Amino acid sequence: MESLLALVTFVIVTGLVGLFTWRATRQADHQTSSGYFLAGRSLGAGVIAGSLLLTNLSTEQLVGLNGAAFADGFIVIAWEVGAALALVLMGLFFLPRFLKSGIATVPEFLEYRFGNLTRAITTIIFVVAYAVILLPIVLYTGATGLNSMLDIQELTGLDSRLQAIVLMVVVVAGIGSIYALVGGLGSVAISDTLNGLLLLIGGGMITWLGLNAVNDGGVWSGLQELTKSHPEKFESIGTAEQSVPFKTLFTGVLLLNLFYWCTNQQIIQRTFAARNLREGQKGVLLAGFLKVLTPIILVLPGVIAFHLFGSELETRDAAYGTLVQHVLPWYLTGFFAAVVIGAILSSFNSGLNSCATLFSLGIYRAMIRPDADDSEVIRMGKWFGWVVTVVSVIIAPLLVYAGGIFGYLQKMNGLYFIPIFSVVVVGMLGRSVPGMAANTALIVGCLVIAFGYFVPIGTNAETDSVTYLVPDFINEFHFLGVVFVALVGLMLLIGALRPLDQPWQQAHARKVDLTPWPGTKWASLGILFLVIAIYTVLAM
Asked: Domain spans of the chain?
């Protein structure tokens, strides 16, 4: 009876989100490139903020980041609080320049700046990375997280854990594909916003119940016991032996946050769909403010799990799921399943929609069929999206061998984050740097990082394990910082030796109003103050 009620609740909540999304977008333009890929450039601040937030918040965050907090405590807030600073820079610097060009994709901006070949290389890097890294991770963490939180195997009566995981991978991929490929960006953004509200409610509920489970004195008493029992878990300054050493906040961690929130197609595509710069800046900064608060649901539960379960858990990534099973009343199981599914869907359908956009506009129309009309471009994007879905479903179960999933995600992201971000930054600031410099940096950067991560340089006789350049020689986040500086230096050197005949001037595409939001600077200062205050309080 309990399982049946949970299933019915799940179906109702998930169905209501789908129904509301359909009603909100059924009259939308799905026949033109602008309508399908950019929601007709009609998104307001609230939808942009909600979609930004939930595209980021998924089970790789709920499971992975809380697992990292289980091991290292609050030092991992660098990924959340640091994101707020990156979003400030997005609103002040990057977004006005992107909207001025009237682009649909980051590679399109690089084409305007550096040429067709740069767009082609960047598009291919994005598509491959999303298909074999991002989307499989979203599906795998979603399936394993659901299974550990809600015991899907028992709920469905399947014979094995593997069957339960495969089932959830297929279900999530199928539903997410419908949102992303049938409804376009408009459906993605609306469903993200709705699911974002549910996630904040559900995630906050787990934190509340978890603090109550610490002792019988209530939430405040539970928090006090945590801070007294494990003061080391509430430090914001990481040591060299921990996953996020303090010095890395100014090198690789900073760069990964800046790329993710300022130039990552999957994330920022909804900002390109802003109805004007004013709404875009308000949405980005609202998301930045909310990111300062997300450690409440993405970090604190991991510390609670450490207090309650300690060394009982087999892996750190089991922390959040075990906490959910321990504190969640049975009658809320179906609701929380819908919340988690919504979080998974938001990341998956956003990544898939971006894949379809990149392929359609950056490969099919730009390189295969330049004369293709909008209906053909959209149709081919949908077909490609289904292919990517199948590939992701096949790869996802293999990630069981990846170890700590959040650390694996950040490591794999560095492969392409750093080269692309370096090219975007130099493209905006170095007006005489030619396309040859950008193309060289993209290829060399990916190869150097791959070499540092994956090419063995010896063996450890004591542990009989293979050793690699990174992190044995240097912290991997410092390594990314060194690569970024080297790539920027390489491009500037090429630009000095072989500059453009005429310095690049950015043209105004006049597709949206570029009047800035008057409150941008004050909101940015407020977010900066909150970030400094959080780090200061936790460091005391």
From this structure: 2-539
